[in-house]
From TrEMBL:
Similarity field: Belongs to the FMN-dependent alpha-hydroxy acid dehydrogenase family.
Reported cofactor(s): FMN
UniProtKB keywords: Flavoprotein, FMN, Oxidoreductase
Domain FMN hydroxy acid dehydrogenase as annotated: residue spans: 16-380
Protein name, as recorded: L-lactate oxidase
Positions with a binding annotation for glyoxylate: 42, 148, 183, 277, 280
Active-site residues, as the UniProt record annotates them: 277 (proton acceptor)
Enzyme Commission designation: 1.1.3.15
Keyword Oxidoreductase: yes
Record-listed FMN binding positions: 95-97, 124, 146, 174, 253, 275, 308-312, 331-332
Naturally occurring in which organism (per UniProt): Psychrobacillus vulpis
Top EC category: oxidoreductase
Length: 380
């Protein structure tokens, strides 16, 4: 790939008469104008006093890129290979549930936009649309399935099997959400997407979940989702059970401690995602980017280390990649794009994100991701 195209695109955007929010604050504002208080608050807010949410954002400027010049950067190769599959760039869609609260087309719109821009799509367990619906809408594109464990673990195994059958390529087990974080905004707004039925895409279509219910009334389905999503007993033995039930690679999402990263490797886990859930779970935890370097060191290249929480623009992605992330997942920015303008809005967000990332890599003076990993980053 050459770099001429990237620069052309920037100029094309400047010439455009179409108005669309560019940066995160503008996107959030545009979404706010479209959404009612409950859904907007659910997406925007985090747990407790939102200390971790703020830390995630404020931590990035502490890391500075020290670029090199006079390296010919006229070609750029952003390819990354994970579990034997090569992706054109290291940018993924983070699992975000209940997308219908942002837009009627929900996850279908996001997955289609992701497919168009080659962002592998990680589908949430608590999606508004099902695994099969998303697979049918985006045939051939790369998809992983994010798993929330279930009180009735046969439901979890059933969803994993369905994801495998639908062509999903990996399972991402989220371990930081054994119960919901203390989210004051949702209490204030009396808004729970789970209780309003926005999370049922994968449950109402699951034969194991449905056959365990006394009846198929909406209320019964919803109360059983709420019951099953609470799984405080999750532990390493469950990981061993999950490994027995699938041949797909398994990643653990929510790792913040290097010892947990080492344990994951010991237990045969195939990859991890360093994440604090965008500050939505335990408030007061370490900024995700601050947790990354020690985890990269502990993992020592044995398994892929993906990253999310606080990524707002391309230069954030460059910092995370330079600090050793194999790939980076984007969360809230695409949700605001979805709220602002459905699939077209997500496309604009992903396109700008991808182009800014490419320009930022080239302006750092490197031409591929292994060179990027050797880029000097200083902590001020
Ligand atoms: C509205 C919303 C819903 C989310 N739903 C899920 C989910 O279902 N499963 C999951 O593992 N993470 C979920 N996350 C967390 C994201 O995967 C990701 O960790 C987080 O968005 C990163 O923080 P950032 O968006 O501030 O960068 C959700 C995040 C948001 C904002």
């Amino acid at each position: 790939m050459t770099n001429g195209k990237n620069n052309d695109l920037l100029l094309v955007n400047i010439g455009s008469t179409e108005k669309f929010p560019i940066n995160f604050q503008e996107l959030e504002q545009a979404a706010k104008e479209k959404l009612t208080t409950g859904p907007f608050g659910y997406i925007r807010s985090s747990a407790g006093g939102e200390e971790t949410y703020r830390k995630n954002i404020e931590a990035f400027p502490k890391y500075s890129i020290v670029p090199r010049f006079l390296n010919d950067v006229s070609t750029l190769n952003t390819e990354v290979t994970i579990f034997g599959r090569t992706y054109p760039h290291p940018l993924f869609i983070a699992p975000v549930g209940v997308n219908k609260i942002a837009h009627e087309d929900g996850e279908i719109a996001v997955a289609k936009a992701a497919a168009k821009y080659d962002f592998p799509y990680i589908q949430s367990t608590v999606s508004s649309y099902s695994i099969e619906e998303i697979a049918a809408a985006t045939e051939g594109s790369s998809k992983w399935f994010q798993l929330y464990w279930s009180q009735n673990k046969e439901i979890a195994f059933s969803m994993v099997k369905r994801a495998d059958q639908a062509g999903y390529e990996a399972i991402v087990l989220t371990v930081d959400t054994v119960m919901l974080g203390w989210r004051e905004e949702d209490v204030r707004n009396q808004f729970s997407p789970l209780k309003r039925g926005f999370a049922k895409g994968n449950y109402a279509s699951d034969p194991v979940f449905m056959s365990a219910l006394p009846d198929h009334e909406e209320e019964t389905i919803i109360s059983s989702i709420v019951e099953n999503i609470y799984h405080p007993s999750l532990n390493w033995d469950n990981i061993a059970e999950l490994k027995e039930r699938t041949t797909l690679p398994i990643l653990i999402k929510g790792i913040l401690h290097p010892e947990d990263a080492k344990l994951a490797i010991e237990k045969g886990i195939d990859g991890i995602i360093v994440s604090n859930h965008g500050g939505r779970q335990l408030d007061g935890v370490i900024a995700s980017i601050d947790a990354l370097p020690a985890i990269v060191e502990a993992v020592n290249g044995k398994i892929p280390v993906l990253f999310d929480s606080g990524i707002r623009r391309g230069s954030d992605a460059v910092k995370a990649l330079a600090l050793g992330a194999t790939a980076v997942c984007i969360g809230r920015p695409f949700v605001w794009g979805l709220a602002a303008d459905g699939q077209a809005g997500v496309e604009r967000v992903l396109e700008n994100f991808l182009q800014e990332t490419k320009v930022s890599i080239s302006l750092s003076g490197v031409s591929n991701l292994s060179q990027l990993r050797n880029l000097k980053i200083v902590r001020n």
